[in-house]
Amino acid sequence: MLTKISALALQKFPKFNASIDVENQEMILKKYVNIGIAVDTEKGLLVPVIKDADKKTIIEISDEITELAEKARAGNLSPKEMKGGNFTISNLGGIGGTNFTPIILHPQVAILGVSRSTKKPVYTKGKFEPREILPLSVSYDHRLIDGAEGVRFLKWIVQALEDPYAALLGV
User: Fold this and answer.
1) At 149, phi and psi to the nearest 5?
2) Looking at the predicted structure, is the pLDDT value of residue 99 above 90?
3) Chain CA centroid to CA 103, Å
């Protein structure tokens, strides 16, 4: 779900789906949405890429992530399966990470960090209610993206996670 929502966010915020050509001093906006998924393996972090994530269903994305993660952990991932990413999602929640600052994978300009979710009391409508809290962080290249854009991007993802139907339907 987070990969699909990120794909939609990249379409809504095209600077996050770009790269910088330093030599020619220009921004390159990508016309495709390829999302890298960081996978922890015995040999270190590998980042297979879900190509055209914006055109795939959540089920197709889920199946592909499972397949690529298994290949990565087995050491059977091809170089082609790790090329062409425009944006990366890194999830440390599965191993207990509660907060972190993800590092951008060059030539990408942004990365989403996902930490471990927890149930916490949230004060709403005059009382505390238990809510699932998912810590997210985004790192971005300030040569292209400023802090206000970073906050708007992350806020859009949070709102989409809170109401995925509206996000998926473009409401």
Assistant:
1) -65, -40
2) no
3) 12
Candidates 55, 83, 131, 142; catalytic one: 142
Q: Is 106 a catalytic residue?
A: no
C-alpha to C-alpha distances, 59 to 66, 81, 86, 119, 122, nearest whole angstrom: 11, 19, 21, 26, 31
State the average pLDDT over residues 74-93: 95
Pairing label, strands 87-91, 110-114: parallel
Q: Cβ distance 16 to 110 under 8 Å?
A: yes
Beta carbons of 114 and 91 less than 8 angstroms apart: yes
Domains contained in the chain, CATH given: 2-164 (3.30.559.10)
Q: How far apart are CA 21 and CA 6, in angstroms?
A: 23
How far apart are alpha carbons 160 and 167 in whole angstroms? 5
Q: Provide the pLDDT for residue 171.
A: 62
Return phi, psi of residue 74, to 5°.
Answer: -85, -5
In this predicted structure, the answer to whether residue 86 has a pLDDT above a threshold of 80 is: yes
The owner of tokens 């996670």 is: 161
**To which H or E segment does residue 138 belong?**
strand 136-140
Q: What torsion, rounded to 10 degrees, do the Cα atoms 94, 100, 104, 105 define?
A: -30
- Asked whether the whole model's pTM tops 0.85, one would answer yes
